[in-house]
Amino acid sequence: MSRSKRNAAPDRPRYLKVKCKTNKRTEPRVYYFWEPRPEDAEAYGLPRRVRLAADRGARSGDGSAYFQACLEAEEWNAKLDAKRAGGLDDASKIAGTLPYFIAELKKTAEYGLLSKATKSGTYECGFRVIHRWSEVLGHIPVKRIRRGHCRDFYEKLLEPDAAGGRNYAMARNTMATLSRVLSYAIEREEIDVHPMREMTLIPAALRLIKWSDGEIALFAEKARAAGRPSMALAAELNGVIGQRRGDTVVLPWDDYQNGCICIVQGKTGARVQVPVTPELADKLAAAPRHRSGYIVYDEVQDQPYTLRHFSRIFREIADDAGLSHLWFHDLRRTAVYNLAKAGATVPEIVAVTGHSLENATKVLKHYLFPDSEMAAEAIRKLIEQQALERREADQVDAVVSQNGLDLTNVIRFVRAEAA
Length: 419
Description:
51% of the residues lie in helices and 7% in strands. By secondary structure, it is α+β, with helices and mostly antiparallel strands. Strands 1, 2, 3 and 4 form a four-stranded antiparallel β-sheet that branches. Strands 5-6-7 form a three-stranded antiparallel β-sheet. Helix 6 (116-136) crosses helix 8 and helix 9 runs antiparallel to helix 10 (229-241). It is elongated. It starts with a helix and ends with a helix.
């Protein structure tokens, strides 16, 4: 039997060579090599021989070393196949790698049902970062990615920028995208255990910022002075109806009927119907109708905004107004805050924002936050309730101060102390 046939085995990767030698102490050692055909190595610029598994020979019968050698040999075979198919420039052609599973994930029906904003704004950003990381790792197969690799990647994402800040939200979103790619690899039975399972990630700080009425008015004034009245209307509108930027930019006049704005949200497909306030209705009535049919449009170029151009113009106007700390998305948070402050219930709020009721409590924490005004209002209600209960118990008339505050509690406390 030839030597090549003796080295061949049904479960052994191509070009994996196993050699046994004895060291100076007469101990048997096993060495693993990847040796492609000489013509392939020369044609595709690959090494003629690669040492696998360990820096020194493994002990005879060491199953873990053999398993590691098989993984490395499969990796080199994948590189050779990719070279034959047209090179390593397109890493998605290397079966078993992260770019490969990203490309396969994009072909699924589940990914196809995601909104365009979710794909471009969430997944695609994460895919680009993950692809660069895969390049650093040499596009190793996902079966060789360990928990330590993922932890090192996360720590790299959290490195401070030039200003010393850390983008916890970006790092968390990227790791969530990586987790989905690895989960898809599990579904394809490429790996059995998720490397990121129960990995601890630092939560992104909640953005507790909202627009005041004065800031909205100032932005609107600057926008109109810049010849962009519909940009001013966009801010005034979203401060009331609290929709996402992408839905506001493409909002047509046809969706405003009978004092209500009807929207099918681009991200979730949720249908919402939001009545406008009388003040906002007057502003909409005074706004000109553009031939494009959109409520918000670029007056300078006389055409509808693209999302990127809208964001750039908004940022320029906000910075000019001294509102650099505010985002357009903060208007959605402002609308939620004002609704809650007015006494709206959670089901009523999500009827405006379009969030599902099942996820309302989890999602609204990013939009609804307590502040001193809410705290003062809560204590005022507590004082009035206690005053009412004590008046009824003592059967006395209410004692009211000049500013209208019920002082029954205070009077009762003073009387009791005096006695």
